[in-house]
From TrEMBL:
Lineage: superkingdom: Bacteria
UniProt keywords, alphabetically: 4Fe-4S, Iron, Iron-sulfur, Metal-binding
Pfam entry (one): Fer4_4
Organismal lineage: Bacteria, Bacillati, Bacillota, Clostridia, Neomoorellales
A GO molecular function held by the record: 4 iron, 4 sulfur cluster binding
Nucleus in keyword set: no
Stated name of the protein: Anaerobic dimethyl sulfoxide reductase chain B
Domain 4Fe-4S ferredoxin-type: 6-36, 51-82, 84-113
Amino acid sequence: MTSRQKTIYVDTRRCMNCRACETACKLENGLPAGPRWMMVAEVEVTQDGIDKTVFLPMPCLHCGEPACEKACPAGAIYKRPEDGIVLVNKDKCIGCRQCLWACPFGVPQFGLDNKMEKCTLCVHLTSKGLPTACQAACPAEAILVGTVDEISKTLRERYANSSRKMLFEGKYMQA
């Protein structure tokens, strides 16, 4: 894995299930009914004794060591060395679905041509320095795309700002 490895991070505390990411992904990539490169899953959890539902957008995570790439007998799935984005060469795909069985997140999708397709991390946009369609569409800024260092920096800034706000509101003064 390279230090330029790009990935996607979803802050489930911010996701409000508006599904703008799903719609933006379909529109940006011209997807017909059927394949969904971004899906918002609903997960029931118990936190602090309270049952609730959290929402989890599930795109391809462009894994450091993608199981789908290793499982593909046709060599159709490859990882770009410059940024770690995992892509599919549909001309090589034989539609065997080994990638679907291998992916721990169930990401691979199959269109009418029976070939595997999935999130490209909007490589056509990100290569120009633009955000992915899902990231740009998210009104809660729950989706972050970048290197681990870039995402960590953004999260540290968010937590610092949140802590400052809580400090000024007196929430830390009660002890």
